[in-house]
Amino acid sequence: MKAQLRPSQTLPELSSEEPVLHSPLTWLGQTTGLFLGFVATAQSITRGEFFPFGPSARDQLLEGGNDQTHRLELDKPVLFYDGTFDHIFINTNGFVATAEPVSESTYLGKMPPKFGMIAALEGDLDTSDGVGKVFFRQDSSPDALRRAAEHINRAFPEDDEVNPTNAVVVTWVDVATHEPQSRGDAVGKNRNTFQLVIASLETASYAILLYARDGIQFSSTPVKHSSAVMHAGFSKGSVRGYLFSSQGPYYRTTTDDEASVRALAEETNSGLRGVWVYEIGTSPYFSNVAPGEVTDLPTESTPRESPERFDDTRGPAYTDGQQLVYPPYESEGEQIEVHPVQYQPHQPGNPEVVVVDDTDINVDVFSYNLGSCANNRHKCSQFADCKDYSSGYCCHCRPGFYGNGIQCLSEGKPQRINGKVNGNVYVGNSPSPVEFSSNDLHSYLVVNDGRSYVAISDITDTIGPSLLPLSAIGGVIGWAFALEQPGFKNGFSIIGGEFTRQAEVTFLPGNERLTITQEFKGIDEHDHLAMSTTLEGRIPEVPRGSTVQIDRYSEIYQYSNNLITSSSTREYKVILPDGSTETRSYQWRQTITFQSCQHDESLRGVNPTQMLSVDQVFVMYDASNELIRFAMSNKIGDVNGQPVENPCFTGRHGCDTNAVCRPGQGTQFTCECAVGFNGDGRTCYDIDECREDPQICGSHAICNNQPGTFRCECEDGYLFGSDGHTCIEANQPVDACEEGTHTCDIPERAQCSYTGGSSYICSCLPGFIGDGRICQDIDECQPGRCHQEAVCYNTEGSFTCQCRAGYYGDGFYCSPERTKTRCETHRDSLLAVTEYGPRGPRPPVGQYIPTCDENGAYEPMQCHGSSGHCWCVDRNGQEIPGTRSGPGSRPSCIDHGGVPPPIGPTPRPDVHPLPAGTHLLFTQSGRIEHVPLEGYNMKKDDAKPVLHLPEKVIIGVAYDCVEKMVYWTEITSPSISKASIQGGEPIAVITSDLDSPEGIAIDHLGRTMFWTDSVKDRIEVASLDGSQRRVIIDSDLVNPRAIITDPPNGNLYWADWNRDAPKIETSYMDGSNRRVLVKDDLGLPNGLTYDFQSSLLCWADAGTHKMECMHPGRGDRRKVMEGIQYPFGITSFGKNIYYTDWDAVVAVDHYTGKESDEFQPQKRTKLYGITTAYAQCPSGQNYCAVNNGGCTHLCLATPTGRSCKCPDNAASVGCVERDGGY
């Protein structure tokens, strides 16, 4: 497995000292590896399923006793967090350490420890009685490595296959608690048995933890005069900081609740109950401990004996045997109508059958089926056939697919559902509601055995525990994809993925009422089902710290024309924090409305009444990550619950999650890989349709392979025609700026900037003021604008400074003695070593002497007097590659004030030059991508990669609007590079004396770049070619990252996310006048941006989850938005602020404080830096923009002038330093 960034529960590290915030929503990642701890197989593993241990496995035995430690020298190193360890320490107390453990009194009951620890199950343990033992060994045998690979690859099914090369196996067998006052009676003690396997390869290490059935008999151990809950997890230990050490990351897999310890043997994150897998270290770059991803929970074809039978003894109260009536109850202020329930002769476990008579439900017939297939075939799914009937047409899914014909899914393939939750819910007697505002809802379904998982994010503890009884929020998802019994169909098979579900829940005895409205919006281009949920009403309070248990239940679904109804009463048990329990109930009534094809007779054969059976219901609220999770197994079948034995209908078949179970006679069955997969059904592999048939998408189209299917995209300049398949040439939008049809002021006063589509922006040129459509000249000749010995002359749109008689200079700096320019210094230094002949000085033969113009600047064209070669140079005298000509010819060189033409070879096939307009550039691991902007809207369909650098981790990105170059930092082989966005190979700019370059910013006026290094803890500046490096800030920095420039005003801003004292600072661009702008109420200020139009400095904080802005000169700080997840980079353009949130680019209107759009790249790796690539440079000037400010080397702007600085190497000839101001 290639080391990669993954979201997880704690904070990964980017530098060697402090961690970076990472998303806690593990289950939201691209692999949907969610639902840690959901039900897996019927029984936990046994000791016999451990890796072999004991004398027969040639294990070593740890000395018996309490707090014993053995140092184990490793044949191959273990990677843990960002460290590499050649030895480890095995301890009696249920853990392995990376440094020699100190006395147990320093960590028992005081976790996390000061040393690195892999805690399998840490507590005060004892093996001195001779019964408990701790075995350990190193093992590189094929059998052990095969077992380890199976566990890892099952836990991370969507990653590349892993094949470890070495393993360490540690087994704690029958260990007991350490009890100093014990009588020594070893017979009646509770004992724990568990195993830790550390499996490693060159680039990664994994921890595999196995907890046997009945292997956890105690979950706390005595500590002094009390007890402490045992710990499982991974602690980095102390991290050495800049001034002092601090506690490093601690990824804990249990909580302070003893139930979480007992759950280790009952739950899983690897697909096998009692087995847990974690990636604990990677090289060369480490993000964080990554838990196994439960996308594959294999069940057994031969079920183990189950301790429970399906026997729902709960039932309604019967009257005279003819009719069942719910007891009447009252809601808040009104009487609820009670609906009679038609009674069938009572059978044990027979659920209620409810007749609902609603006259206000809209059941209009779907209009898609008017007409014939000849004109409407494209309305069917690409996996469906169209069939004409006498009164219209209908769509039918082809064999191997299921659905309503409009939307068809591959049989057997797991399904994902994404959506948002909104609404207002009152809890208990609270007078104010808890607001849901676009909370993420994600669901994952293993279709071939009917398991459904639902997770909702951003659930605060004020409402989280009280939502636990409402597994019904995800109940309709389970119904839609329930495991089908013979002759019955689940919801999606009947009505597809577009329907509306409304449910009314009334809680007893308080009569609180909640309305749940869910709209299912169909399948998107990724085959994911989209939905929205709205919650309105009141729910009874469940105290914090409580858990909820929901027993298996059944519901009757009644089907009629475009309407499905169900109703039931459910009980649930609340286990309070003190251990007491309460049994509560609620009444449940729902309607599902949809639009079906009325011409298809086969739909009328659907059983009018079907029973949904739900068991293995699991509900959990994760307060630390603000997540609520629901899991359940769903079957749809006969109302009378006829037993079926075939594994295809029980879900206990063992087929791959991407396979269909085909029933045979009796208990016989076969596994068949779903469409788009190959294999034997037990193991299925994705078919790459794009590779097998390169022309599958047709001309002018790009094929993207996806699991089980593929996706066609049209090339740039093409779009899908009316058939939805053929790519046709698009009508190109008109560039009003180029056509001259814009409404901006004349070109001498204003600039028209094309922003894509039909949009453009008018802005006044430097020296003018206005809205871009009307611009007026500014009189720049204010006091202090020119040197005190110069005269200022205002001109149209600009001004000039001219030294008084007797003084020399450019007017910005005047001196009684003329100061040489860089070109003159260069020229004269060479002429100083010339020979003198009869007719004056003669340079040595073959020597190139630069030519300077009347102002001392380099002439745009330079020639070699001896060879006759000529070439173009930039303003610093550097040769422009590709411009050198031979004797007798002259290159066409442009003035330094212009924009050079694109230079370099044609673009690589995987890189797309940017079209005209303004764009967002963002980094994504080993690539830089762009999203065009049309106005302020992201044109997501036109997003493309600009640059692809495999095996690199690109962090920061900046854009030079003058030369149209993109600059970036990368940390795998620390460097700063650049490339033309018009095409061309990457050019290394700086490759030495860097440790972790992260933030980068460009001064497009002064032609310099600034960057932060979070390991060297400093800020540097250099010319854009990488020369003339100078450190400008190197004190009182701990973790500098984001950095931005304000060139017209000569200011520099940066953020330091030091956990102990985060801050946002500013200085002049020469590093002087440094001061702290913000230090209070900061957490992890990751991103900074400065808006030139509004003069607002804005930042995104991954610790406080806020976006805030201020005017640096006024200090008027204001909050823009709360509740953002885990921002990294941030940039601004007009009314919008755009930020990266690990897996998306999000747009925020900074006036309304609302997220207005989101773009998720197709390649789902982590997003880092982001910047705006302007169509034209922003207006403004500074003192370094003309003739390098009169400086010989570095010109660094200040608000009132500039500073001339020398590079740190101090080897530059003729360098003259001058401080800012005149």
Can you list the strand order of the major beta sheet? 26-27-28-38-37-34-35-36-30-31-32
Instruction: Give the N-terminus to C-terminus distance in angstroms.
Output: 59 Å
Helical/strand content category: mainly beta
- Beta-strand portion reads 35-45%
Question: So what's the overall shape?
Answer: globular
InterPro entries: 6-blade_b-propeller_TolB-like, cEGF, Cueball_EGF_LRP_Nidogen, EGF, EGF-like_Ca-bd_dom, EGF-type_Asp/Asn_hydroxyl_site, EGF_Ca-bd_CS, G2_nidogen/fibulin_G2F
GO biological process, one term: epithelial cell differentiation
Region (Disordered): 289-319
Subcellular location: Secreted, Extracellular space, Extracellular matrix, Basement membrane
State the gist of this model.
The chain is mostly beta strands and 1222 residues long. It contains ten helices and 85 strands.
How does this structure look, described?
This protein has 1222 residues and is mainly β. Helix content is 5%, strand content 40%. It has 10 helices and 85 strands. The strands form 25 sheets. The chain has an 11-stranded mixed beta barrel. Strands 1, 6, 7, 8, 9, 10, 17 and 18 form an 8-stranded antiparallel sheet that branches. A 6-stranded antiparallel sheet has the order 2-3-4-5-13-16, with no helix packed on it. It is globular and about 105 Å long. InterPro entries: 6-blade_b-propeller_TolB-like (IPR011042), cEGF (IPR026823), Cueball_EGF_LRP_Nidogen (IPR050778), EGF (IPR000742), EGF-like_Ca-bd_dom (IPR001881), EGF-type_Asp/Asn_hydroxyl_site (IPR000152), EGF_Ca-bd_CS (IPR018097), G2_nidogen/fibulin_G2F (IPR006605). Residues 413-646 form the Nidogen G2 beta-barrel domain.
